Amino acid sequence: MNAFAAVDLGASSGRVIVGRVGPTRIELSEAHRFGNEPVRAGGTLYWDILRLYRGALEGLRKAGPVDSIGIDSWAVDYGFVDGSGALLGNPVHYRDGRTDRVSVAVPDDRLYAVAGLQKLPFNTIYQLIAAQGTPQYEAAQRLLLIPDLLAYWLTGELGAEYTNASTTGLLDVRTREWSSSLISELGLRPSLFPEIRSPGAKIGAFAGTPVVAVGSHDTASAVVGVPAAGERFAYISCGTWSLVGLELDQPVLSEESRRANFTNEGGVDGTIRYLRNVMGLWPLQEAMREWEISDISGLLARAAGEPALKHVVDLDDPVFLPPGDMIGRLAAAAGISREADPAVLTRCILDSLAVAHRRAVEQAQELAGRAVDAVHVVGGGARNELLCQLTADACGLPVLAGPVEATALGNLLVQARAAGVIGGELAALRAVLRETQQIVRYEPGGDPAAWRAAAKRISG
Ligand code: LRH
């Protein structure tokens, strides 16, 4: 068996995971886990990027000899480097408020026609407009997305991995290259944007070990890690966010799709990740932090005993995006006391999340003209039995939950394929996952009319 290392940076922790891979097998072990705690300084929310890099280095040391290294992280955020390659300032967190008031010279429908991206306030395009004119922007030579920045530090090679570049709002969804027309219409410097590289390409070497481009957008790797057979499936990559959608061959760029805020992100092997960002487990994570509750299983067990669909809020409301007083914001939206039992508010979050999953799964099918038979839930949320059952009930479809480690698996499988250890298309990689990973099936139950009514209530 060959060994590969996945550096996987998530919103609350980073890990280095070693995958031992044979032609039909993959086994994971976690070499190192480290915290990822954003820091507010001078009124701005930053990623602690050097801590993350140190964690990656420590993890690679602990991983021992491997055939290659692949890096993935959350999307959209970046660091600027100057002409000498020095990092100019700390990368800003996408939950920072700096994009709240940017005005954009290009209309939304034109942006969608070119990039096909859902409108989220933190897309790189809006962050760059906020940065335009600052001394840091003026001094910048290159923009590096987070995994590209780490790869640069490991190898000295500059580049922009395709799947993550597709989340900037500046990549042409058809040509898969930077859109020079959008870049110039926005008055941005074209020279900031490094050459695009594809998953599977060798980037360079770190201490003699190849560093290989993977789906460096964590969601792109997670979608590789969906153990689906055929194409009649929806997926939910469920963690801090729920990324809910379909895998397509072609983008959907209709006006209805734009209005429903569906995105056409670039996937591994030229696929399109047609999906929408749903608020995910972030509100629960934040509320738990504020309650100082760390025992999630106890909380979920109590939430399971609460009545279904009593309090439902629209979790897609951007009011829930930034950190700070999540309990107060949720309680206000639900019309309950902020002193309510955590189990009540937890049930409200999970019911609401399941309703939001239903809405996105339904809309994706309608907008793309593709019906699905099942919903795959991958990522940390696959461990949450209550959420998986509620999602099955809400969608009226079976939920296939797992693997929890879909992102690391997707990262590692793309590396193993590039090394020639494992062969074939995405379907072949997924067949290995079906053989080796634990997948739990949840049948839809509950009261379909009650879910329909709840969905209608939040859709207005
Ligand atoms: C999930 C994720 C998601 C992006 C968000 C910024 O980690 O990459 O796909 O929209 O973070």
Provide an overview of this structure:
The protein has two domains: 2-216, 2-Layer Sandwich (Nucleotidyltransferase, domain 5), CATH 3.30.420.40; 224-403 and 438-460, Nucleotidyltransferase, domain 5. The strands form six sheets. A seven-stranded mixed beta sheet has the order 16-17-15-14-18-19-20, with helices on both faces. 37% of the residues lie in helices and 22% in strands. With 460 residues, it is an alpha+beta fold. The longest helix is centred in the last third of the chain and has 27 residues, at 342-368. The chain starts with a strand and ends with a helix. Helix 11 packs across helix 13 (342-368). The protein has helices spanning 49-63, 108-115, 124-131, 135-139, 146-155, 162-165, 180-185, 218-224, 255-259, 282-291, 296-304, 326-334, 342-368, 385-395, 406-418, 426-436, 448-459; strands at 2-9, 13-22, 25-35, 39-41, 44-46, 68-73, 78-81, 87-88, 142-145, 160-161, 196-197, 202-206, 209-212, 233-238, 242-248, 263-266, 272-278, 374-378, 399-401, 440-442. The protein has 17 helices and 20 strands. The model has no long low-confidence stretch (mean pLDDT 97). A hairpin with a 5-residue loop joins strand 16 and strand 17 (272-278). It binds 6-deoxy-beta-L-fructofuranose. The site of 6-deoxy-beta-L-fructofuranose has 10 residues, from helix 8. Residues 74-76, 94, 217-219, 241, 243, 277 line the site of 6-deoxy-beta-L-fructofuranose (LRH).
